[in-house]
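Entry 14. Structure prediction run on the chain below.
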Amino acid sequence: MSIATASAETEAALPFWLVNVPRSAWPEKCPDFLIDASDRDRAILTLPDSQYCRLSWIEVQEYVRTNRIDRFNRLPSDLRRYLAYVAKLKEDYGSVLNFIIEKRLQWKDREPKDADPFNNPDTADLKILYNDWPYGIDTKIIHLVVWTKFELEDDPATGELTAPMRKKIDDFVERTFRSRVPRDNVIWFKNWKSLKSVHGIEHFHVMLHDPDMDFIEEITHGDIPASQSLQP
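Output returned:
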């Protein structure tokens, strides 16, 4: 048995709240932020990072194309950090929504001003930022979130975007992203309501494969995701 295999088996035998944690940092009991972790999250947290396979660009494209966005998940150690981060935000700001509005978006007024904001490149009615805690995907894939003050209209019967709204978003993605990144390297999607981690502010996701990072800095105005700024 190799050292790597023995190490992985040892981690797999640990309770989920100790996996991927250095022995010197082991807590005496399950941290409060993990006590109510869902069965899905517990299954992910049980997996050693060394056994986790990041999704390729082709796999990411297929999940979006087939609307299987529920299959996206985070690297186990990132998921642990994300859950700890969310618990701290709720403690400090009352909710993740409050933090997003106050610190990430810095929107004092949430009423949209533009009649057709998607057609105004200088609009204050939307903001493009990094996803603070991206999924477990190829590290060449940049995961952004487009936050909007205006409604992204859904069809009440299906819960999916209406056809006119889908076209508006796609036209915006065409002008904003595909004009600067090869079109085969750009995808977008809007989470199902049941998958949203932030309710109360409309947003959709854009993923770019191996883009020019100068463009990313420009489009996000130098944003830095929390997963990078809070590296252990």
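The first strand starts at residue 126 and ends at 130.
Filed with the rest of this week's runs.
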